[in-house]
Every structure is written in structure tokens, then in C-alpha cells.
């Protein structure tokens, strides 16, 4: 699903201040029926993350935390079964899972002597039944299962999607008889930067030589693509030469501008692959 | 001086005698007494003759071409016969190349009698403009027109056809095209309108050639002072022809025009150097553009011209002129002179030295010029015939040449037709980043994790900077320092450890070679063009376009036939990087690394034609060798240039020392500094080993970047002396046995000519002999070199020797060793070089593979043993296993002794593998005995290499690997045993059609979120959907193709949550409002499905205890009426299926009491507990019975 910048902007425009709930996703799908759901979800998730990055700080001032905590306490005092935390998050336009983290952290600060460590918090978010307060545990759990952009479950889904596409890509490479080194093998050899696959014999895709392939199970928007370029793709180029990036959920067409330089973008496994021909006697 | 010429013209003196006289200090016995007498009186003037002659010719041509500026260039060494520079202030800003020998030395050497080939043309007043605007390194910025001759680097055999790919490129003017694109900044406002015509019709400049033309060309006008905005006037047509000679003549025309224009505008009789002034008026094309026809019948004084041409040619032939190609350039200028403006007396200033017959101008017309030029060209046919095909074509097609000498034209045409020396402006092959090589780049090569990661970042910053430079360096106003300086310095600042510096330097040097020295030898440096960056990184066509654009936009300049040293194209990046980094450590490491690489490459065995081979040119090996030679030569030149740049960087300055005292003190300081690389020794070795053709060209590059003081240092002075000798000894016309072949000589002459260009006027042999004590020794060296016997291939022998001498096991006695060495030497001596290369190559590779093989087998096996030993240790000593360091010691003491096997195995490996490889690589027809010897040598070489490495490193290697294994194992003992023994994959028949894990997590998450709410009234799930979901989950867990452990863990947890919701009947079911809950049977079916998944399909631990956590149990509290039967059912099934032990469940239930519950809920919980406990050994039928006694949901427990 390759979108032009304009198409992408149109979608992104609809995502401003939409809470990351399953209801929002449903509406989005109705609004853009021609786009694939996975692409829409990926775009939504990325746009939402951008939004959160922009506003993150204002939710973490001590005044804000205090105010959220009080609102939470008041809310559950009134009705512990009501979705207090989730509503609070939606009201202040913040991700429910992240709101849950703020409140949990604040709660633990109050109830334990030592400030809670990050790993304790993470563990409780992964398994809210560890949270000493039953009401808070339910509230946190509710936030996590209702958040479609943040939280341990979402992280797991994203990770799983990434892994699945790597497996998919591996299978395709095997099917095409292209021998490769995968990330684990590269790491074992001490490579400092490891694309998903390095081809042991380079191939040409649409006339461009490629030495490596990176699988990205997300939509390639400007922000993420530039970050990837800086942190990964150029680093791969710097070590292994030109390569191919597959954005399985599509990308903004205009970003595919480094082909000559050695970064090729694709939204699926390429069909036009030319391999080195060994003369067969 | 003129007297000599006069004598010649009056035929009192034969040309041969005169040349002998010039070339040698003493009179020869061949000279006839009359001549000797004539000459002896002139003895003091002898050394002045060549400069006199050259200046005389320049002046003569200027006299008949009067519109150029008078002859300021010739002031000091002009034909007046005055001695050279008379101690005027030294020129500023030049490196050694321009001032090899300082004026003081020159003027003190009055007794010197060697021809000093003084080039008046270079003598300008205060520093020529080309010196202006140099960067901190003292070099011109942005010059892409450097003349690097011998681009092809191919070295045809001496007796080969006149083909010469290298020569074609070698002709500096072809490529340096200095006036091709005159600076826009210098175009006077009024001339703007003429620009279009320049583009359309670049060639037909025909008005008189300016007298100062040669001078300007010779002085390689200032590149740096040329403003960069000039695209609109650029003329690309000559490049369209791709014929260098065309460029040359156009260049001349431009120069002429420029002169003409400047003269017209300035109206100054003596502009010091008008063309070189940045702001000087620009030539326009408004002049007279037609070429005057030249007619042999109208030559004015044939005989005189013939004589002078003969003397001049003889001087050229004897290498008495400093730069052969400059003279050819000059001659071709005469040949292509457009038109003479009738000489006007007002323009003629009597030349002080001109007397008698010289008083009338030598060149009185275009006819004279052409006649003279053709005469000289006839004498220089041999050199011409080695030029490239394109140049030959132009010469052969020159109508004047045809007209004046049909014979020469015929020979040139024949040479052209026979020539295969096509010089293509091939695109450089695409360059990439330096690839990451685990052997040199992985963590093991760094002192710490930090150093490793720092270097990782640095590599990326380096390329980021490089890419940005590529993108932006042509943008107007972009500045390297401003754009990249701080980033580069920040990066260099992180290179704290010496080890990191060496890593970075290796990267830097490799990238330099890769970008600036393309393997095909057609890189930008070679052609004096900026290699096209875009092209290097990508598309061809775009690259061409870009290159064209570059030509149009860049401050194009060229150095003319003798350009200054520059850093064209990508080289500029590396130079600027060095300058910007301004890191002492970096520079030191870089010099170390460059020096090492230069030494390494310089020891390359020179190609030698294979003796048995008849058609050498077509022989593949020979061609391969030549190609390799070219690559090495070009790499060396590049490396040496950068070494010179960095090494002399601290000493570079805009001005030479102002006073003698200061200079002396600097000299005494500098003379104690050892040279960065012992280039003198390398040069001496090179001369001795007859490898000057490889050594001298890079040495010239190195020296060309020297600072002012360098030529005065004894060490370097002796080098210059050697080079000067070499230059003089390379007489092209001599082709005796043991001599260097023609093109080799020509290469050396050209590079040396380039280097000496400026320095010649102030130096002569006598001076060098007087000042340098080594010269006697050198003379001996040179003598032995010239007469040396052929076939001594020292490099080869030296390379081979160790293989046979260093025995692996028992060392053979010394004498045997020596004999073996001799035998090996003898063996290779009479074999084709490719045999030696093959053997060396095989040995090198097999040796290296052997080490890798040992690592992969023996060492890997030892590591496995270490792991199992460690496991045992951990079992016996408990999970902690003790101190890791101690563990490692124990393991190593057990395992390292096994390393001894490595040598045995290594020997076996080499013995097994080498012969086959040698056999595969040598020709089928290799005689059996030769083959077997080659195999044996390869085996022993490979074994030696492998065993040397293994015996030195095997213990350390085992230790390192075991250490890594220990820490790996200990880590694995940690809290995450998770899915270590995970079974991957499914049956072969599986087509992996199961839904993806991510999809299932996502779906289950949705069900969970629906269940915990909030939800819209119409939201819910169909029971069938839940069954389908669990079915898919089972499918997926059985396929596992796409499953990763974290996903499985989350799925396990979610499935438990789902079970809790089922037990508590909390899942909203789609359907009529009354029926929003699952039927009991459906719920039970779903629970059974889950139980089966937990038992059979999940391979990660399923957190079943979550079912009895307060939060999950509390779900039941919300339901009215409460339903406990499903929970009891589930608990019993868990025990039944062995998923949980009774004790576990009891413990969980017990701990539930600790939570605060509503009173009635506590009671019900207690009842459940009792009920569960009441059935200690639950047979299946009893469970069913239990089910039966609770027919109505939720009531039984309450009642009981």
C-alpha cells in the first residue's frame, strides 16, 4: 500500500485527537474502506505516538500527576467498578496504558517506602494481578486491554508482527534460493549493526544492486523512515552497501528517493529479482 | 649565450657537438678542434644555454605575435644570458615543487655547469596568481583538472606497438584544459553578450596567438582565484569530441583571447600577469576568428629554422629540458597558431641579447611557426607515436602538418591506424562504503564495549558527513568547515583510545582508496577530473549528466600542461576532513597507516613478460599483471599524495622564511626530524631493483606536497638529486638491452618533468654534487642500474624465501635452509610469474581457511565440552556454580592443552587442501614435476602461515571462546529459562495457513477489552466466534511457524484471563438481550478447549495460578447469582490433566483468604475450598456426578 504524501496527509488529518480505542479504529476503517486495515492501524498508531511524544511532557509535571491521581482517587471512591482511569486518560487526551503507569507509579510511591523501580512497574503492568490494590489492578487492566497503541499487549503484538514478517521474508528468500545470513548469525559473528538479512550473494531488484534486506512491519511515514535511515538503513549501507527495505504496510511514495544512493523501498517482496548467473556447463 | 646560437647558425659548430657540449661539462674527444675552440670560449655560459634557448624561442614567438604582454615571464632567466635569479626574494606560497632549490643555493652555484633548463616562463614577479587563494594546506581548492599522466597505467612492452593507453591520458594539456572555462567573475560587463557565441562556437578563435600564451599555459593559472560562478560561459563542446588535442588548441585560443582582451582593455605595455589577475578582463570572442592559412612556400628562413629546430630537438631528446611535455605543448601551440598580427615596431622591444643574425625575428609569420613546429615534431615522432589514438588522429588530420610534411603525416597516420591505445573516459566503477569485516571490526578487536560502540557510531557519522558533503559541496556558499567541521571534531574527540584511532584510520584510508582510486584505474584522479560522486553511488546516466553539470558549474580550471598539485573531486573531501579534524593523533595514525600501505604496495612484484610467450600483448596473464600494476601504481600515488599532505602539513605556510638566519634555524630544527617514511631508501631500492617505474611516480606525488624548507634538507635534497639524475638518464632515444621500455621512461619523464618544472631554473647538477655527499654512491648505483643484467627478480625471491626456510617442525640445518631457499628461488625464476602468484595466493588462502576451520571444528568442540563441563559443575555446586573467573580457570586448564592438536590438524588441513587448489588454478598443461613442486611449496607455505598463527594464538582463542561460553551459560541460568528448548517448525506437510500469532493476540485482546468494558450496548461476541478463535489458537500453536516466545507467553496469559472471564461468565455474548450470557455447556466446551491447549499445545509455561489470584476470583464476586460450578470444574480438570498439582491449588485457595472479601463471598469461597478438598482423588465419574448435583446455576454452593 504505497500512498502519496497527499493521501497520507488526508488520513493523518483524520487522526488528530482520536483516542486509541477499538471504537476509534472501527470508525477509521469505515472512513477509509479502500485502505487495508493493517495499514490504517499502523498509520494510526504512528500518528498517535507522534502525538504522545509531543504531549508527553505536560502529563508528567508533578502538578499534572497530582491532579490525575486525585481525580482517580475521587473517581474510584465514587464507583470502583466504573472505568475511571480509562475515562481520565481519554479526557486529558493521553494513552490509557501510559495513564495507568502514571497512576500506578504514584500509587506505589504513596504505599511503599522506596520509590518503585521501573522493572517492578513494568512487571505489574504486564500482570496487574500483582498490584496490591484490587481496584487499581482492575483499572490498570482495563486501560491496558483498551489501549490499541501502547501497553504490554500492544508491544507484544507489534513484536509478533515484526517477527512474523521476518519469518515470512526468510521463507521467501529460501523459496527463491537466495542464501543469506540472518540477524542472529550476524550478531554471533560480532557485527555491530545487523540488518534482518544479508544476502551472501547480492541480487539486483529493479536494476538496483542490493546486499541486505530489512523487514519493517509498519507503514513507512516520514518520521519513522528518517529515524530508521539514521539509525539503521544508512548504517547498513555504511557497512554492507546498498540494500532493500520492505515496509509491509506500505510507505509514502516520496520517501523512496534514495534508490540511486542505495536504499530501495518496497511494500512487498520484490518480484523483479535478478541473480548472478553462474554459467552452467 | 646567443653566441652559441650564432655559431650554430653560422655553422661554425655542429649541432651534435653543441648538444654534447651542453650535456657534458667536459669536451668530448669527438669534437673537432675548431668547434672545441669555439665552445671553450663560451664555457662559462654553458649552463645557461638551455634556458636561453627555451626563452629565446618563447620570445621569438612573442615577437611575431605582438599583442600579448611583453615578456615579463622571462625577466630573470631571459635570453640576455644573465645568470639566473639574482637573489630576489623567494616566491611565496609554494611548496617544494615550485621551489625545490632555493635561490640562495642557486645563485651560489655559479660554477655549476650543467644545463639548468631554466624556464623563464615561470619567473614572474611577486607570486603568480595561481598561488593565491590556497587553502590552509596551501593547495588550490576545488581544482579538478589536475594532470595525472599515465592514467591507464598499463605498461606495454618496450618493443610494443605504438599503442599506449597510458600515454593518451598522460598528455597533461589534454585534460587540464585550463582556459576551457574562464572565470565569469572576470568577464567585463560589456562582454556578457558574447557568452552565447562562446557556447555555440567555441573553436574558431583565429586571431594571432598571443605571445604570452605559452607562458600562461606553463604557469598553470590560478585555479583558486577563479570565481566559481561561471556556468553560463562554459563551453563543453571540446569534451563532446572527447579528443584531448582539440581541447588543447581551444585552450590556447582561449588564452590568446584572454591576452588580447586584457591588452585591449588595459592598454598597458607591461601588465605583470594580466591573465592571472582574478579581476582581469576576460577575453571575448569578438576578435578575428579565422585561421590564417600556412604555406610552406612562404617560410622566411628555412635553414635557420631547421638548425634551431634541430638544436631544440636535441635538447629535448637529451632530456636537457625540464619537461618534455611542456615543450611538446609549446611546439603544438606553434603548429596551431592562428594568425599573426603583422609585427609592429612599437611592439618590439629589442631583445638585449639578440645580435647579428638573431636580430631578425626567428618567426616572421605563421608559416615560420608552423614550419618550425613540424620540424621539431618530425624529430619527436617517436614520442608522438606513443600518444593516444585520439591525439594521433588529430595530428594526422592536421592539414598544416600534411601540407608541411606529408611524410610525417603519413607516419602519424600509420601510427594512428596501428594504435590500439584508445583512452576512454570510462566512468569510475561504483564505489561503496568500506564493508564491515568481522575479522577486523567485531567486538574482539576492541579493548572495551565502549570503544566498540563508539567506533560503531563514528563509522556512521563519518558516512553521514561524507554523504552530506556529496550532496552539498557544490552548493554555492557551502563551506566544509561551517557545514561539517564541528561534527567532525566532535567525532574525533570521541576517539580516545589509540586502538580506536587505528580503526578509524583504517576506515578512512580504505574509503579514500575506494572512492578516489577506482580499481579499473579510470578514477577521477587519473583523468584529472572530479570523479562523479552521484555516479559512484548510482545511476550511470544520471552520473554523466551530473558530471557534465559539474563541468559547467564547478570552478573549472585546469592546470595547463603543468598544473599544481591538487585534490580533485572526492579527494577534496578527505583533504578537508583532515584539515577540519585537526587532530594530531589522527594525523599520526594516518601517516603510520599510509606509510605501511605504501611500503606494502611498493613491494609489489613488477610484471614480467613470460619468457615462452610469443604474443605478449594478448596474453591474459600479462594483461592481468599490467592491470594490477596500474591499480597499484595509482593507489600508491594517491596514498603518497596524502602522506605528503599530512606529513608536511605542520610546516606549510604561506611564506618561505623571510631571512637567511631564520631559515638556517628552521633548517637545523628540521634536519633532525626523521622523515615520515624513508622514501630515500625506497627510491634507492627501487632504482637498484629496477623498479623506478613504480616508485618514482608516487614519490613525485609525495614530494609535490613538500613545504618550502624540504628541498633544503640534506635528506630530501639527495632525493631530488637522485631524481634529477634519473631524469637525465632517461634518454628516450636509447633503447638498449636492459633499458627501461619506452613508455616506462616516458612516465617517469613526465612525472619528473612535472615535479621539476619550477625548480629547474635554479638547480643544476654541479650544485647537487657539491651539496650532497651521497652522489658518488648514487652514481655508482645508477651506473649499475643502467648496465644491470636483466632477470634479477629480488622481490619475488624475497617473498618466497621464508616458506622454505622457516620449517615447521624440526628446523633444517642452516645450510639446507639456504639451499632450499635457492632452490625455491630457482624454481620460480624460470616459471611464469602467474605460477608464483598462484602458489602464493593458494598458500595465503588455504592458510587462512585452515585457521578458520580449526576455529569452527576443534575450538567449537572444546567450547561444547566447556559448556557441558560447566553444566556438570552447576549441577554439583548448585545454581550459583561458584565464581565465574574461577570456573573459567578450571575449564581453561582442562581444555587449553587440547589446543596442541590444532597444529597437527592444521598441517593435515593444508596438506589436504592446497594441492587441489594449485592444480585447479594452474594450466592443465603444467608439467607434472612443476605442478608437484608448486603444490609442495603451496602446502608448506600454507602450513607455515597457519601454524604460525595457531601456535601463537590458539590458547588465547580457546580461552576467549570458553569465556564467552561461560558467560553465555551463566546468563542462561538466569531468571528466563523460557523457551530455550523450543521446538521450532511443524510437520513438513504443514503449509503454515494458521492465523498469525499477532492476529490472535489482537483478537483475544479485543474480547478481553469487550469483557472488561466499557462497551457499547450492541457490542458482544458470538459463542461460535469464541470457539473458532480457540480453534485457530490451537492451529497456530501446532504450526508455530510464525510464533516467537514472547507472543506465546502473552497468548498463554491471555488464554488464562479468558478462562477466568468464562468461569465468571463475564463475556458479553451477541444475541437477544435476554440471552447475554453463555450457555453452561458452551462455556464448558470452551474451557475444555483451553485445557487442551494448555496441556498439549502451549510450549511455554502457562500462568494458571492467575486463575486463583484475587483479581480473577473477584470477577465472580460481581456476578449475581454467583456461579462456582465452572470454577470447580476447571480446577478439577487442571488437576486431572496434570496441569496443576492439588497442593498448588490448595495453596492458592488458601492464600485467597488473606484478601478482604465481602462477607458472603468469603463464605462461598470457603465452601468451594472445602468442596475441592473433599474430593481428594477425583475420578472422572465423580466429577460428572458433582456436576449433576448442581443442575441450576449458582445455587448448589449457596445451599450446601
Automatic annotation (TrEMBL), chain A:
Q: Where in the cell is it found?
A: Cytoplasm; Nucleus
TM annotation in the entry: none
User: Where is it chiefly localized?
Assistant: cytoplasm
Q: Which UniProt keywords apply?
A: Cytoplasm, Nucleus
Mind listing the GO biological process terms from this record? erythrocyte differentiation
Q: Name one Pfam family in it.
A: TPD
One annotated Gene Ontology cellular component of this protein: cytoplasm
Q: Which superkingdom, per the lineage?
A: Eukaryota
Record's protein name: CDAN1-interacting nuclease 1
Which organism is this protein's natural source? Capra hircus (Goat)
Task: State the taxonomy lineage.
Answer: Eukaryota, Metazoa, Chordata, Craniata, Vertebrata
UniProtKB/TrEMBL annotation, chain B:
Name used for this protein in its record: Codanin 1
Q: What is the species listed in this Swiss-Prot or TrEMBL entry?
A: Capra hircus
The Basic and acidic residues compositionally biased stretches are 250-263
Give the Low complexity compositional bias ranges.
Answer: 106-118, 182-191
Its BP terms in the Gene Ontology are: chromatin organization
Database matches in InterPro entries: Codanin-1, Codanin-1_C
| Renumbered residue ranges of the record's region Disordered | 61-297
Record's GO cellular component, any one? nucleus
Domain Codanin-1 C-terminal: from-to ranges:
758-872
In this chain, composition skew of type Polar residues spans 217-235
**Bias type Gly residues, positions:** 84-95
Amino acid at each position: 500500500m504505497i500512498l502519496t504524501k497527499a493521501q497520507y496527509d488526508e488520513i493523518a488529518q483524520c487522526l488528530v485527537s482520536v483516542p486509541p480505542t477499538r471504537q476509534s479504529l472501527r470508525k477509521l476503517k469505515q472512513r477509509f474502506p479502500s485502505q487495508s486495515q493493517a495499514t490504517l492501524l499502523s498509520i494510526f498508531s504512528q500518528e498517535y505516538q507522534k502525538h504522545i511524544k509531543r504531549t508527553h511532557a505536560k502529563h508528567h509535571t508533578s502538578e499534572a500527576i497530582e491532579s490525575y491521581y486525585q481525580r482517580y482517587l475521587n473517581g474510584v471512591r465514587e464507583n470502583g467498578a466504573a472505568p475511571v482511569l480509562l475515562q481520565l486518560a481519554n479526557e486529558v487526551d493521553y494513552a490509557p496504558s501510559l495513564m495507568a503507569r502514571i497512576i500506578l507509579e504514584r500509587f506505589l510511591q504513596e504505599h511503599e517506602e522506596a520509590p518503585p523501580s521501573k522493572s517492578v512497574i513494568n512487571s505489574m503492568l504486564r500482570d496487574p494481578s500483582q498490584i496490591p490494590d484490587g481496584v487499581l489492578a482492575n483499572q490498570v487492566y482495563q486501560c491496558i486491554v483498551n489501549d490499541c497503541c501502547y501497553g504490554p499487549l500492544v508491544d507484544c503484538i507489534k513484536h509478533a508482527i515484526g517477527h512474523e514478517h521476518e519469518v515470512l521474508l526468510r521463507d521467501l528468500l529460501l523459496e527463491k534460493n537466495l542464501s543469506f545470513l540472518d540477524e542472529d548469525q550476524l550478531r554471533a559473528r560480532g557485527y555491530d549493526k545487523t540488518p534482518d538479512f544479508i544476502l551472501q550473494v547480492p541480487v539486483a531488484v529493479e536494476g538496483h544492486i542490493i546486499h541486505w534486506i530489512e523487514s519493517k512491519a509498519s507503514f513507512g511515514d516520514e518520521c519513522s523512515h528518517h529515524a530508521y535511515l539514521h539509525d539503521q538503513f544508512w548504517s547498513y549501507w555504511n557497512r554492507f552497501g546498498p540494500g532493500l527495505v520492505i515496509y509491509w504496510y506500505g510507505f509514502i511514495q516520496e520517501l523512496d528517493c534514495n534508490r540511486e544512493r542505495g536504499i530501495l523501498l518496497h511494500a512487498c517482496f520484490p518480484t523483479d529479482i535478478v541473480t548472478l548467473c553462474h554459467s552452467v556447463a | 649565450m646567443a653566441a652559441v646560437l650564432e655559431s650554430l647558425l653560422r655553422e661554425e659548430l655542429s649541432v651534435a657537438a653543441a648538444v654534447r657540449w651542453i650535456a657534458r661539462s667536459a669536451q668530448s674527444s669527438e669534437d673537432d678542434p675548431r668547434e672545441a675552440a669555439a665552445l671553450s670560449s663560451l664555457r662559462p655560459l654553458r649552463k645557461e644555454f638551455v634556458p636561453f634557448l627555451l626563452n629565446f624561442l618563447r620570445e621569438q614567438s612573442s615577437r611575431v605575435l605582438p599583442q600579448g604582454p611583453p615578456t615579463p615571464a622571462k625577466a630573470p632567466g631571459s635570453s640576455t644570458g644573465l645568470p639566473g635569479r639574482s637573489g630576489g626574494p623567494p616566491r611565496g606560497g609554494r611548496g617544494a615543487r615550485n621551489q625545490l632549490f632555493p635561490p640562495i643555493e642557486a645563485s651560489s652555484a655559479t660554477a655549476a655547469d650543467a644545463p639548468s633548463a631554466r624556464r623563464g616562463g615561470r619567473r614572474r614577479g611577486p607570486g603568480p596568481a595561481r598561488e593565491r587563494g590556497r587553502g590552509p594546506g596551501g593547495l588550490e581548492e576545488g581544482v579538478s583538472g589536475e594532470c595525472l599522466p599515465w592514467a591507464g597505467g598499463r605498461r606495454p612492452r618496450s618493443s610494443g606497438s605504438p599503442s599506449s593507453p597510458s600515454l593518451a591520458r598522460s598528455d597533461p594539456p589534454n585534460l587540464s584544459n585550463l582556459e576551457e572555462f574562464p572565470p565569469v567573475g572576470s568577464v567585463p560587463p560589456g562582454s556578457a553578450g558574447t557568452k552565447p557565441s562562446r557556447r555555440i562556437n567555441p573553436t574558431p578563435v583565429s586571431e594571432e596567438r598571443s605571445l604570452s600564451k605559452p607562458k600562461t599555459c606553463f604557469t598553470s593559472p590560478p585555479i583558486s582565484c577563479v570565481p566559481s560562478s561561471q556556468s553560463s560561459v562554459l563551453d563543453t563542446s571540446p569534451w563532446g569530441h572527447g579528443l584531448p588535442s582539440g581541447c588543447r588548441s581551444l585552450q590556447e585560443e582561449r588564452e590568446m583571447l584572454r591576452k588580447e582582451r586584457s591588452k585591449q582593455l588595459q592598454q598597458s605595455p607591461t601588465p605583470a600577469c594580466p591573465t592571472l589577475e582574478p579581476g582581469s578582463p576576460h577575453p571575448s570572442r569578438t576578435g578575428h576568428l579565422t585561421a590564417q592559412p600556412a604555406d610552406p612556400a612562404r617560410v622566411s628562413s628555412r635553414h635557420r629554422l631547421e638548425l634551431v629546430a634541430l638544436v631544440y630537438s636535441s635538447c629535448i631528446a637529451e632530456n636537457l629540458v625540464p619537461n618534455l611535455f611542456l615543450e611538446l605543448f609549446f611546439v603544438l601551440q606553434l603548429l596551431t597558431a592562428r594568425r599573426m598580427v603583422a609585427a609592429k615596431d612599437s611592439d618590439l622591444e629589442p631583445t638585449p641579447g639578440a645580435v647579428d643574425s638573431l636580430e631578425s625575428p626567428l618567426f616572421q609569420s605563421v608559416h615560420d611557426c608552423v614550419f618550425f613546429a613540424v620540424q621539431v615534431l618530425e624529430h619527436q615522432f617517436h614520442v608522438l607515436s606513443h600518444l593516444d589514438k585520439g591525439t594521433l588522429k588529430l595530428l594526422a588530420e592536421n592539414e598544416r602538418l600534411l601540407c608541411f610534411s606529408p611524410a610525417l603525416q603519413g607516419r602519424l597516420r600509420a601510427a594512428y591506424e596501428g594504435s590500439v591505445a584508445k583512452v576512454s573516459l570510462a566512468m569510475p566503477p561504483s564505489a561503496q562504503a568500506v564493508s564491515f569485516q568481522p575479522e577486523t571490526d567485531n567486538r574482539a578487536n576492541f579493548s572495551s564495549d565502549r570503544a566498540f560502540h563508539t567506533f560503531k557510531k563514528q563509522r556512521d557519522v563519518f558516512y553521514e558527513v561524507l554523504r552530506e558533503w556529496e550532496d552539498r559541496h557544490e552548493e554555492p556558499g557551502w563551506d566544509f568547515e561551517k557545514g561539517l567541521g564541528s561534527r567532525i571534531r566532535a567525532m574525533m574527540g570521541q576517539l580516545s583510545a589509540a586502538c580506536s584511532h587505528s580503526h578509524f584510520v583504517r576506515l578512512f584510508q580504505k574509503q579514500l582508496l575506494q572512492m578516489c582510486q577506482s580499481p579499473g584505474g579510470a578514477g577521477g584522479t587519473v583523468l584529472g577530473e572530479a570523479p562523479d560522486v552521484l555516479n559512484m553511488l548510482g545511476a550511470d546516466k544520471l552520473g554523466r549528466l551530473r558530471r557534465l553539470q559539474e563541468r559547467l558549474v564547478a570552478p573549472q580550471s585546469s592546470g595547463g600542461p603543468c598544473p599544481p598539485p591538487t585534490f580533485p573531486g572526492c579527494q577534496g573531501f578527505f583533504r578537508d576532513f583532515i584539515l577540519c579534524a585537526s587532530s594530531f593523533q589522527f594525523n599520526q595514525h594516518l601517516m603510520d597507516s599510509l606509510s605501511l600501505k605504501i611500503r606494502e604496495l611498493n613491494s609489489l612484484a613488477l610484471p614480467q613478460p613470460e619468457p615462452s610467450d610469443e604474443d605478449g600483448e594478448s596474453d591474459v596473464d600479462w594483461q592481468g599483471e599490467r592491470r594490477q600494476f596500474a591499480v597499484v601504481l595509482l593507489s600508491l600515488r594517491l596514498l603518497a599524495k596524502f602522506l605528503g599532505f599530512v606529513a608536511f602539513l605542520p610546516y606549510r605556510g604561506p611564506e618561505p622564511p623571510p631571512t637567511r638566519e631564520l631559515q638556517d634555524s628552521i633548517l637545523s630544527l628540521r634536519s633532525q626530524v626523521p622523515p615520515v617514511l624513508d622514501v630515500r631508501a625506497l627510491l634507492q631500492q627501487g632504482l637498484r631493483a629496477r623498479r623506478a617505474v613504480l616508485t618514482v611516480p608516487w614519490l613525485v606525488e609525495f614530494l609535490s606536497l613538500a613545504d618550502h624548507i624540504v628541498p633544503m634538507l640534506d635528506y630530501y635534497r639527495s632525493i631530488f638529486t637522485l631524481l634529477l639524475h634519473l631524469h637525465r638518464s632517461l634518454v628516450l632515444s636509447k633503447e638498449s638491452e636492459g633499458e627501461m621500455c619506452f613508455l616506462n621512461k616516458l612516465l617517469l619523464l613526465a612525472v619528473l618533468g612535472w615535479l621539476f618544472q619550477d625548480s629547474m631554473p635554479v638547480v643544476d647538477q654541479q650544485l647537487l654534487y657539491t651539496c650532497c655527499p651521497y652522489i658518488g654512491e648514487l652514481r655508482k648505483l645508477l651506473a649499475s642500474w643502467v648496465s644491470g643484467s636483466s632477470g634479477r627478480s629480488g622481490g619475488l625471491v624475497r617473498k618466497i624465501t621464508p616458506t622454505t626456510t622457516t620449517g615447521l617442525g624440526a628446523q633444517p640445518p642452516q645450510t639446507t635452509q639456504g639451499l632450499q631457499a635457492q632452490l625455491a628461488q630457482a624454481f620460480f625464476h624460470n616459471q611464469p610469474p602467474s605460477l608464483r602468484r598462484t602458489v602464493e595466493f593458494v598458500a595465503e588462502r588455504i592458510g587462512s581457511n585452515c585457521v578458520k576451520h580449526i576455529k569452527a571444528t576443534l575450538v567449537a568442540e572444546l567450547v561444547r565440552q566447556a559448556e557441558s563441563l560447566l553444566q556438570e559443575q552447576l549441577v554439583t555446586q548448585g545454581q550459583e556454580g561458584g565464581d565465574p573467573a574461577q570456573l573459567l580457570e578450571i575449564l581453561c586448564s582442562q581444555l587449553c592443552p587440547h589446543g596442541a592438536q590444532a597444529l597437527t590438524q592444521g598441517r593435515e588441513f593444508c596438506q589436504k587442501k592446497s594441492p587441489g587448489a594449485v592444480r585447479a588454478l594452474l594450466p592443465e598443461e603444467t608439467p607434472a614435476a612443476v605442478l608437484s613442486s608448486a603444490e609442495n611449496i603451496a602446502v608448506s607455505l600454507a602450513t607455515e602461515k597457519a601454524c604460525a598463527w595457531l601456535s601463537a594464538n590458539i590458547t588465547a582463542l580457546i580461552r576467549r571462546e570458553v569465556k564467552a561460553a561461560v558467560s553465555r551459560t551463566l546468563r542462561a541460568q538466569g531468571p528466563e529459562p523460557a523457551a530455550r528448548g523450543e521446538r521450532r517448525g511443524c510437520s513438513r506437510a504443514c503449509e503454515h495457513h494458521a492465523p498469525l500469532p499477532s492476529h490472535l493476540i489482537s483478537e483475544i485482546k479485543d474480547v478481553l477489552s469487550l469483557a472488561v468494558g466499557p462497551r457499547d450496548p450492541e457490542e458482544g461476541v458470538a459463542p461460535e466466534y469464541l470457539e473458532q478463535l480457540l480453534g485457530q489458537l490451537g492451529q497456530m500453536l501446532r504450526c508455530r511457524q510464525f510464533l516467537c516466545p514472547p507472543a506465546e507467553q502473552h497468548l498463554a496469559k491471555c488464554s488464562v484471563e479468558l478462562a477466568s472471564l468464562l468461569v465468571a461468565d463475564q463475556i458479553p455474548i451477541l444475541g437477544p438481550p435476554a440471552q447475554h450470557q453463555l450457555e453452561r455447556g458452551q462455556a464448558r466446551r470452551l474451557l475444555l478447549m483451553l485445557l487442551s491447549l494448555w496441556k498439549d499445545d502451549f510450549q511455554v509455561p502457562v500462568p494458571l495460578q492467575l486463575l486463583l489470584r484475587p483479581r480473577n476470583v473477584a470477577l465472580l464476586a460481581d456476578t449475581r447469582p454467583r456461579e462456582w460450578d465452572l470454577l470447580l470444574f476447571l480446577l478439577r480438570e487442571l488437576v486431572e490433566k496434570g496441569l496443576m498439582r492439588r497442593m498448588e491449588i490448595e495453596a492458592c485457595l488458601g492464600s485467597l483468604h488473606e484478601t478482604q472479601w465481602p462477607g458472603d463471598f468469603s463464605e462461598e469461597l470457603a465452601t468451594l475450598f472445602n468442596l475441592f478438598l473433599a474430593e481428594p482423588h477425583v475420578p472422572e465419574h465423580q466429577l460428572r456426578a458433582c456436576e449433576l448435583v448442581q443442575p441450576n446455576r449458582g445455587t448448589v454452593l449457596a445451599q450446601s
